[in-house]
Amino acid sequence: MNTSNPISAGASAHGIQTQGTQTLERGLAVLEAVGAGCVTLAEIGIATGCTRSTTQRLTSALVRHGWVAQAQDGTYLLGERLMRLAGRSDGVVGLAAIARPVLERLGLETQDTIHLGVRSGSNVLYADKVPGRRGLEMRSRTGQLMPLVLTGVGRALLLDASENEWRDLLSAAKRPVDVSAWITRMQTYRASGVVFDLEDNEQGINCVAAPVRAASGAILCAISVASATPYLPMARLQELAPMVAAAAADVGRLLNRNGGQE
Fold first, then answer.
1. Tens-digit pLDDT profile for residues 84-131
2. Using an 8 Å Cβ cutoff, are 239 and 90 in contact?
3. 101, 138, 141, 197: which could join 77 in a potential S-S bond, CB 3.0 to 4.6 Å?
4. What are the domain boundaries of the chain?
5. Is it the case that residue 262 has pLDDT exceeding 50?
6. How many angstroms separate the Cα of 236 from the Cα of each of 5, 112, 189, 208?
7. 3-state secondary structure of 232
């Protein structure tokens, strides 16, 4: 005779399914936290609401499987497996490979940190980064997501957007800002073709950015030069602006030559 209780068995299976779903959701929350710039277990734990032990267990599992990577200094960033997956869907990895020689040249010429960013919804995805040569390590990481409106490279991606979209993105970012002044600055940047980040996103960090355009004129991605304010005062930002714009044009030519990215 079968003495098993079908109700108990069903309840047990439901419990396992619920636990698995919860673990998956927490793992995805860890990925979102790392993508948003959380680089330590403490920061990830705060962002996800998980205990330290749970955070460590989930993060270690994601590192083992390549979805998250751990740098030499112990900080976390999105892993190559996730970046490869992103590359299959929108060409991010291929784009970064094509642009890399120009980014390295610009880094050598300026000695500062170089970023390559692509749009991902309301965010900018850092597709590549060339570290600066001044002994200053910026918190930005390849694979990191940041609201478009908060960074120089993100705002360079928005130069062709409407003022209504600017306002919507500012509202979604939930960052206290003088909207009228922000829009006035963007109109100035649109006219010049370059964007200045004057400690808008991170205190003590300035940047100059420019969009990379397809042959059609559409913005494909953007590049930036960033460093601590003593190395990038306004005078030097203005001096570098034509160099950054020229480098962006070089990346555009390379991308158009390698398949006419549209």
1. 555 444 456 677 888 999 999 999 999 999 999 988 888 888 888 998
2. no
3. 141
4. 6-78, 88-257
5. no
6. 76, 12, 16, 10
7. coil
Task: Residue 238: name the closest of 251, 250, 225 by CA.
Answer: 225
- Confirm whether pTM is higher than 0.70: no
Cα(254)–Cα(248) distance, integer angstroms:
10
Instruction: Specify the CATH class of 6-78 in words.
Output: mainly alpha
Tokens (6 digits) for 229? 């304010």
Residue position matching structure tokens 């398949």: 259
List Cβ neighbours of 217 (8 Å cut-off, separation of 6 or more).
none
Burial 33-72 (b: 16+ CB within 10 A, else e): bbbebbbebebbbebbebeeeebeebbeebeeeebbbeee
Structure tokens, 125: 């995805």
